[in-house]
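ESCALATION

Customer reports they have been waiting on this structure for their group meeting. Please prioritize. Original submission:
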Amino acid sequence: MTGAASWVWTLVLDWHGGPFYLSDRPITVAGVAYDPVLDFVAFEERLDLLPDAPGEQSVGVRFDLGQRLRELLALGADPRTATGVLRLVPVDLAGAPLAEGRLVAVGGLRQVVWGALDAPGVVEASIGREDQEETPILAPSAVIDRAIWPTAPEVSLGVPYPLVFGQPGWTGVGGALRSGTRIWWLTSSGTTPILGLVAGHPVTATTVDVYDATADVWTAVVPVSSVADLAREWREWIASYGGDTRAAFEAAGIGQEVFFGVDLDGAIGGLSVIRRSDLSHSPGLDHELYATWGAGRGLPEVRTGGDLLAWLLSRSGWTVDQGRTVAACRALSHEVAGAVEDGDTTVEQYVQDVVLPVLPVTLARGPAGVYPVVLSAETLDADPSFALVAGENCEAIGAVGAEDMTGPRGVRVSYGWDGRAREYQGQAQAGTLPGSGSVVRSTTLGSRQLATRGAGGIEDIEGVFVRDFQTASRVAVEQLRRLNFAPVQRSYAAPADRVLELGDVGTVTDAPVGWSARRVLVVGREWDGARWLYRLAALSTV
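Update from on-call: job pushed to the front of the queue and completed.
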């Protein structure tokens, strides 16, 4: 906050008879006088460059309610039911607030301690959110079931409605077709299949190419249409009716069109299907069919890696900082294509095991929730947002520290997943690979040196949702850079009005260590009561 002479910690506590307005120094905000009974908060943030999951967001607080605590406890109030909003408020030289302040933590009080013999009015706790960590991508109830689809063949029963995004199986104009996503029969008449499920949601594709792996037959340009998602629309009604499902539908005047795939007027949501009658041959109920998505995409809102990450985070059990997420995901323009067909897959697992290893991002957790920080060349090479000069507008703290160079000499990305063959159709690489004789290098941030300085072996990445060679090559270069990012770091102290955020990119000039406008990334910060302490990682060696 420009003009800030200092910062004051404030805590608004919502508890029995509250709210209570507490601070570490006397302050009045929006006409409310805060009670200066809050201890100084030890606050520190770090950016993990290679995370498996976003770090916990929890901040410890200590405050003295004095006699009020004894009175509240006597009334039956439980400190574990309290929630708090912790902020750093910028103030001028006179101690007057310049703004509402920066949100640092919000949530319920956890790990609460109170009633110490030497401090009977003191409460110690941490503030933070408790996120649900396991959220299925596919709804557990959205499966092919005879209660909903009474004529579904035995082989389809229990199969989840698949999630499809991008254009699985399509290699581009002029490329060879490959099998994309599995098609399952929803309805039949005797031994004749009628309606095939291609996605458990509306899609942008109007047609797909269908491959019958059992008969080795392709049918091009098969129309895709929609039917009502009966599992969603009629579940409660069926449960309340009981008895024979087909008879129940017929009694309600819905009729056979439900089972044979005629579109329902006013259908909400819907499943995406094909009809056997549109195929060039007559497959049996036991035939394996696959859809190749050459004329449109799956999920309408997902085209790029950024779209996919934002979509997944919005459906995760994590609290998400939507503003930062949207801004970061705009930079992730990787073309993606894939499907989720396993009903046991959770959003969190998919993000950590499938998405993060491919995209140049790390997940951070701030007071407003989880958000991605982009570490791509384009982002890190952007115009610097700050410039520090040691001895002028900041002070160097301690020595320069450097991590060992233990990253890989090369990165190999497998791409182009074939659903029928259950294998990848191609590879792209960056760096030096044994026997290849070829080197692909990025030309910025000194990563042209990565292939020679890497101390490890070859990193193999499974690009399950990477569709084409261009995207796979981009992933290989980005991951070579990220995995070989062995930071050279130094800490600097800056005045109260110099506020930098985690992930900001700027420059530092520090003559004693040979840095002249050295490009750096903010990877840590804390407020020590009088100034900001920043941990900066140098991004280049040239």
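Sent to customer with the following note: The first strand starts at residue 6 and ends at 14.
Escalation resolved.
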